[in-house]
C-alpha cells in the first residue's frame, strides 16, 4: 500500500558484475534461507568426511550387537542386524541426496526443453504437449511415481526415473510460462530479424530467462524428490538392501517401533531436516531471485 | 451455466479416457508376455492361454485397448492375480476406509489451514504469524509416514491414549488424520495468507476501510471472499496429494484401505489390482477437481460459463 514518503530512491549501490541480481546480498539477509543453506552444506561435509570419521561399516552385520539402544559407542543405536545407525544415517545422506539431485536433474532436462519449444512454437505442438502434461497431472501426486515403480521395478536408477518423471509436468509448465512471457519481447524480435535461428534464439535469449525460476523450482523440488524417494523406500519399493537409504531404513525400523524406537526415529529426522533445509532455501531464493513469485 | 458444466464434465471424462490409455500402455511396457504378467506367477498355463484369448493379445494394440476399455465400461477390471477375486470386489471392500480417511483429513486441513492463514495475514509479522508460518513449513517438510510413526510412539506406545493402528472406532481416526493432514494444512495456510494479504492491499478494501467498515467486517465480508478463490483450487489439488499420502499413512497405521492394497499388489506384482486402484484414485481426483471447477465458477462471477 502506498503511504506518503514510501517512495524513496533506492540507496543500494549498483550491483557488481559478479552478483547481477544481488542474490547473495538478499539471501544473506534472509535468515531462514541461510539456515537452510548451512544445513544442506552440513550434510555435504558430513557425507564427504563420513568414511574418515566413522569407525563402522554401514553394511556389515554384527550379530553380537543387535538392537542396542543409543550409547556412546553407538549414538543412534544399532539395528536388527547390529549395524551402527549413525553410520547408516550418514551414509544414507549420499544415497538420498544423490537420488534427489539426479531426479531433479532428470525432470529439468526433460521438462525444460519441451516446455520452451511448446511455448515458443505454440499451435499444434503446444496443444499436444499441454494435453500430455494434463494427462500426467491426472495421476494424484505420489501415485504416479508409485505406478512407474510398479512397472519398472525397484533399484536406484528406477527410483530416479520414477521420481523424476513424476515432476516433469511442473518443469514443462514453468519453462512454457517463461517462453510465453518473453516471446513477444522486442529483443527476441531483434534477434530473429538479425537472422538468429530458432535453436539459437531458444538457447541464447529464452533459456537465460528461465534460470532464476528454474533454480527456485529445483531447490524446492529437491526437498520433494527426497521426500517421494523416501516414501518409496518406506514402502519397500526403493533401493535394494543393504544400501543405506533413509526411507528404507525407516521402513525396516517400523517393525521394531514398539521395542526399539530409535531405528525409525533417526532416519526420519534426517529426512525431515534435509527437506526443511531445501524448502527454506527454496523459499528464500524465491524471494531473492523471482519477485514475480514472491508471496507475503 | 449448463454448457459450462457439460464442457467441464466432458473434459474430465476425456482426461480419464487418457488415463486408461496410459495405464494400458504402461502394463504392456513390462517386458514379457502380457497374459503371463496379468495372470500372475501362480496361474496355470491353461489360465494364461484363456486370458490371452480374452485380452485379444493376437490382435493389434488398438483392438486390445478397445477390449480393455469396453470391459471397464461394464465394470470388468479383471481378476486379482493373487486372490482370483474380481478386482472390483477387492476395491469395493476397501473404498470406504480410504474415502473416510481422505475426507476427514481434507476437512481438518481446510479448517486449520484457513484459520492459521487468516490469523497470519491479519496479524502480519506478529508472534502468531511467525508461529503459524513456522508450523506450516514444518508441516510441508515432515515425511507423512515418519510423523505417523512418531505420533504412534508418543500417543499409543508411551501415553496409551490412542490406538496404534487399525480401523473402526472414532479414536482410530485421530492419529492417521493428523499425520495425513499435516502437509495439506501447511500448504493451505501459506496459500490463504498470501492470497489474503494480496486482497487486503486492493483498492476496494481500502475504500471499505475508509467508509468506516470495521476491520473484521472488511476481512470477513470483503477480502476473504476474493482471497478464497485461489485457495479453493489449492484445496482441490491437495486432495490428490492426500490420496497419494493415504498410501503411506495406511501402510503406517495398518489401515484396511485401497492404499495398503495397492502397496501389497505392487509387492506381489498383481497388475490387475494395481491397474484398478490407480484408475479408482485418478477417477476420485478428477471428480474432486471437477467439483472445484464448478464451485469456482459459482464463487467467482468473473468466470464466464460460455
Brief rundown of the structure:
The complex is a heterodimer of chains A (296) and B (306). Chain A is mostly helical.
Query: Which structural class should the secondary elements of chain B be placed in?
Result: mainly alpha
Order of helices and strands of chain B: HHHHHHHHHHHH
Which percent band covers the strand fraction of chain B?
Answer: under 5%
* Fraction in beta strands of chain A: under 5%
Kindly state the percentage of residues in helix of chain B: over 70%
| Residues in helix, % of chain A | 55-70%
Shape of chain A: elongated
Number of strands of chain B: 0
Continuous helix count of chain B? 12
| Largest beta-sheet characterization of chain B | none
Q: What's the pLDDT, averaged over the residues of chain B?
A: 89
Classify the oligomer: heterodimer
H/I helix tally of chain A:
10
> Are there runs of chain A of 5+ residues with pLDDT below 50, and where?
1-17
What's the count of strands of chain A?
Answer: 0
Structural class of chain A: mainly alpha
| Termini Cα gap of chain B | 7 Å
Shape of chain B: flat
Mean pLDDT of chain A: 85
What is the C-alpha radius of gyration of chain B, as a whole number of Å? Answer: 24 Å
Amino acid at each position: 500500500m502506498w503511504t506518503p514518503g514510501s517512495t524513496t530512491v533506492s540507496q543500494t549501490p549498483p550491483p557488481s558484475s559478479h552478483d547481477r541480481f544481488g542474490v547473495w546480498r538478499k539471501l544473506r539477509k534472509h535468515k531462514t534461507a541461510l539456515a537452510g543453506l548451512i544445513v544442506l552444506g552440513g550434510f555435504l561435509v558430513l557425507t564427504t568426511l563420513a568414511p574418515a570419521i566413522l569407525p563402522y561399516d554401514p553394511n556389515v552385520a554384527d550379530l553380537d550387537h543387535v538392537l542396542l539402544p543409543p550409547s556412546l559407542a553407538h549414538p543412534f543405536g544399532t539395528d536388527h542386524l547390529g549395524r551402527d545407525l549413525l553410520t547408516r544415517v550418514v551414509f544414507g545422506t549420499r544415497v538420498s541426496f544423490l537420488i534427489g539431485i539426479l531426479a531433479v536433474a532428470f525432470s529439468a532436462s526433460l521438462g525444460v526443453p519441451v516446455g520452451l519449444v511448446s511455448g515458443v512454437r505454440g499451435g499444434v505442438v503446444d496443444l499436444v504437449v499441454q494435453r500430455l502434461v494434463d494427462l500426467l497431472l491426472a495421476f494424484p501426486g505420489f501415485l504416479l511415481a508409485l505406478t512407474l515403480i510398479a512397472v519398472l521395478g525397484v533399484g536406484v536408477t528406477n527410483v530416479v526415473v520414477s521420481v523424476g518423471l513424476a515432476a516433469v509436468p511442473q518443469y514443462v509448465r514453468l519453462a512454457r510460462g517463461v517462453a510465453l512471457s518473453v516471446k513477444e519481447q522486442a529483443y527476441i524480435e531483434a534477434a530473429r530479424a538479425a537472422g538468429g535461428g530458432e535453436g539459437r534464439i531458444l538457447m541464447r535469449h529464452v533459456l537465460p530467462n528461465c534460470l532464476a525460476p528454474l533454480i527456485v523450482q529445483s531447490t524446492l523440488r529437491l526437498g520433494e524428490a527426497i521426500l517421494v524417494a523416501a516414501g518409496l523406500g518406506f514402502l519397500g519399493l526403493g533401493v535394494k538392501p543393504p544400501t543405506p537409504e533413509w526411507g528404507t531404513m525407516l521402513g525396516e525400523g517400523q517393525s521394531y517401533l514398539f521395542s526399539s524406537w530409535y531405528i525409525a526415529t533417526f532416519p526420519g529426522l534426517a529426512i525431515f531436516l534435509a527437506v526443511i533445509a531445501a524448502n527454506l532455501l527454496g523459499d528464500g531464493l524465491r524471494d531473492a531471485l523471482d519477485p514475480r513469485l514472491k508471496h507475503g | 451455466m449448463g454448457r459450462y458444466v457439460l464442457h467441464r464434465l466432458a473434459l474430465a471424462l476425456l482426461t480419464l479416457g487418457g488415463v486408461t490409455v496410459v495405464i494400458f500402455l504402461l502394463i504392456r511396457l513390462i517386458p514379457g508376455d502380457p497374459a503371463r504378467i496379468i495372470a500372475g506367477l501362480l496361474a496355470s498355463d491353461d489360465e494364461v492361454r484363456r486370458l490371452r484369448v480374452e485380452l485379444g493379445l493376437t490382435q493389434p494394440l488398438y483392438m486390445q485397448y478397445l477390449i480393455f476399455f469396453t470391459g471397464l465400461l461394464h465394470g470388468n477390471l479383471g481378476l486379482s492375480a493373487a486372490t482370483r477375486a474380481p478386482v472390483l470386489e477387492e476395491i469395493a471392500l476397501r473404498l470406504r476406509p480410504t474415502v473416510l480417511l481422505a475426507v476427514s483429513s481434507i476437512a481438518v486441513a481446510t479448517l486449520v489451514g484457513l484459520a492459521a492463514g487468516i490469523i497470519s495475514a491479519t496479524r502480519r509479522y506478529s508472534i502468531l504469524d511467525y508461529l503459524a508460518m513456522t508450523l506450516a513449513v514444518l508441516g510441508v517438510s515432515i515425511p507423512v509416514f515418519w510423523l505417523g510413526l512418531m505420533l504412534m510412539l508418543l500417543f499409543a506406545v508411551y501415553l496409551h491414549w490412542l490406538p496404534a493402528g487399525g480401523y473402526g472406532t472414532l479414536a482410530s481416526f485421530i492419529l492417521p488424520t493428523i499425520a495425513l493432514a499435516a502437509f495439506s494444512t501447511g500448504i493451505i495456510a501459506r496459500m490463504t495468507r498470501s492470497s489474503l494479504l494480496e486482497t487486503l492491499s486492493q483498492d476496494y478494501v481500502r475504500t471499505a476501510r475508509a467508509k468506516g467498515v470495521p476491520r473484521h467486517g472488511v476481512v470477513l465480508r470483503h477480502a476473504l471472499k476474493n482471497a478464497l478463490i485461489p485457495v479453493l483450487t489449492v484445496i482441490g489439488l491437495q486432495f490428490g496429494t492426500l490420496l497419494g499420502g493415504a498410501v503411506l499413512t495406511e501402510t503406517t497405521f495398518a489401515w484396511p484401505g485401497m492404499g495398503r492394497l495397492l502397496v501389497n499388489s505392487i509387492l506381489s506384482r498383481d497388475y490387475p489390482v494395481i491397474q484398478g486402484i490407480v484408475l479408482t484414485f485418478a477417477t476420485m481426483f478428477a471428480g474432486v477437481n471437477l467439483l472445484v471447477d464448478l464451485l469456482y465458477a459459482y464463487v467467482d462471477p468473473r468466470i464466464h460459463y460460455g
